[in-house]
Amino acid sequence: MTLQLLLSLCICGGILLLTRLYYVLPVFNQPTRYVSKRRKGKTSVHQSSEKMLCVVLGSGGHTAEMVRLLQGVEFDRFMERLYIVGNNDTLSLDQISLVENHGNVYNGEYYVERVPRSREVGQPWTSALLSAASCLRRAVAIMFDYKPDVILCNGPGNCVIVCLVALVIRLLGLKHIPIVYVESFARVRTLSLSGKLLYPLADRFIVQWPMLVHKYPRAEFIPHLV
In this predicted model, what pLDDT tens digit does every residue of 63-122 receive, in sequence order? Predict the structure, then answer.
C-alpha cells in the first residue's frame, strides 16, 4: 500500500512538473515580437524603466561583441546593471569600466559578480562537470540574491548556467526573468553550442544572419547589431 501511494505521488508530481514546464518554457509559447523605435542596428531589450539588467560576459570575442551590443541598450531604462564575469576574466572587467565610466553617460549603479568558468578551453568533459558544478553553485547565489529583471547574453559558456538558474526561479514562481540571447555575428549557418542549448529556453532569440531564421523559426533576425 505504501509503495502504491509513493508511486501515485511520484506520478502526480511528475504531471504537475511537466504541466508547469509547458507553461513557463518559451519553446512551448509563441515568441514575442518587439518593435523598436531606435535607429537601425539598435534594439531595446525591455519596455519598463528603472529595472536591473543582467549582462553575462565571456572573454575575447564574446566580450567585444557584447560591448558593441551594449551601445544599443537604452541604459536610462536600466538604473541598475549586474555584470557576471569569469574569475580570471580581466578583459571583461576593463571593458565594464570603460562602458560604465567613460564620460559618465549612464545613470544608476552597477555591480560586478564573478563566477568560475563552466569549462576552460580544451578542458576534458569529465573535469568540466566539476567546473560546471562550481559555476552553478555561485550562479545560484548571485541570481537568487539579485533577481534581475532581464538577462542579456551572447554565448559564453557561463551564460547557459546563469540562464538555467533564471528558469528555475521562474519555475518556482519567484520571478519571471526574461532571457534575451543574441547569437554571435560569426554564426552564419549554424548555432553555437550555447545557442543550441538556449534556443528553446530564451524569450527572445536574436540572430544576425537571415539563413538561421529558416532553420530556427523561433529566432528573430536583426542585422547590424555588432
Answer: 989 998 988 887 788 889 999 999 888 899 999 988 888 644 556 889 999 999 876 656
Is 116 in a helix, a strand, or coil?
coil
Q: d(Cα 135, Cα 25) in Å, to the nearest integer?
A: 23
CB-CB neighbours of 149 under 10 Å: 20
20/147: higher pLDDT: 147
Cα-Cα-Cα-Cα dihedral of 10, 15, 16, 19, to 10°? 160
Please state, as a whole number, how many other Cβ atoms lie within 10 Å of the Cβ of residue 143: 26
* H-run or E-run covering 23: helix 2-24
- Measure the CA angle with vertex 115, ends 44 and 173; round to 5°: 60
Q: CA 62, 163, 188 angle in degrees (round to 5)?
A: 40
Contact yes or no for 171/21 (Cβ under 8 A): yes
Single-letter amino acid, residue 98? L
CB contact at 8 A, 71 and 65: no
pLDDT tens digits along 181-197: 999 999 999 999 999 99
Q: Grid cell 540562464 — which residue?
A: 163
What is the widest separation between alpha-carbon atoms in the chain? 71
